[in-house]
């Protein structure tokens, strides 16, 4: 299904956009980081609008689980901090919840 790649790319854009602000505000990076950061956040918002969910709130809620898991991937890959078992368990719970929200049977 195309929803997972869509959410993963949206998460990468959101995380990188937020990280750009973090790097500027808390990491001492140049304010020029805000330009690609803003573009990434705009791309994230546009991409999330392509979710096949019938309602925005449901799409955003389901995306939240993917965002949490992707953030832990960012933690490991970009920041060099390996997630621990509690991180992994929490992400699994969130992904299970996201799947229920997105694909749960509705009458």
TrEMBL record:
Transcription regulation as UniProt keyword: no
GO cellular component: plasma membrane
UniProt xrefs under SUPFAM superfamilies: Multidrug resistance efflux transporter EmrE
Transmembrane regions listed in the UniProt entry: 30-48, 60-77, 89-105
Main location class: membrane
Keywords, sorted A to Z: Cell membrane, Membrane, Transmembrane, Transmembrane helix
Residues spanning the signal sequence: none
Database matches in InterPro entries: EmrE-like, UPF0060
Organism domain of life: Bacteria
One Pfam family linked to the record: UPF0060
Compartments (UniProt record): Cell membrane
Keyword Transmembrane: yes
Topology term for the membrane: Multi-pass membrane protein
PANTHER family in the record: UPF0060 MEMBRANE PROTEIN YNFA
Family: Belongs to the UPF0060 family.
Protein name as it appears in the record: YnfA family protein
Organism: Limimaricola litoreus
């Amino acid at each position: 299904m195309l929803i997972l790649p869509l959410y993963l790319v949206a998460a990468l854009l959101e995380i990188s956009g937020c990280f750009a602000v973090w790097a500027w505000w808390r990491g001492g990076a140049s304010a020029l980081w805000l330009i690609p950061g803003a573009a990434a956040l705009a791309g994230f918002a546009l991409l999330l609008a392509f979710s096949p969910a019938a309602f925005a709130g449901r799409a955003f809620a389901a995306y939240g689980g993917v965002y949490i898991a992707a953030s832990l991937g960012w933690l490991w890959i970009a920041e060099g901090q390996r997630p621990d078992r509690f991180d992994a368990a929490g992400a699994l719970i969130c992904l299970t919840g996201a799947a229920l929200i997105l694909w749960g049977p509705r009458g």
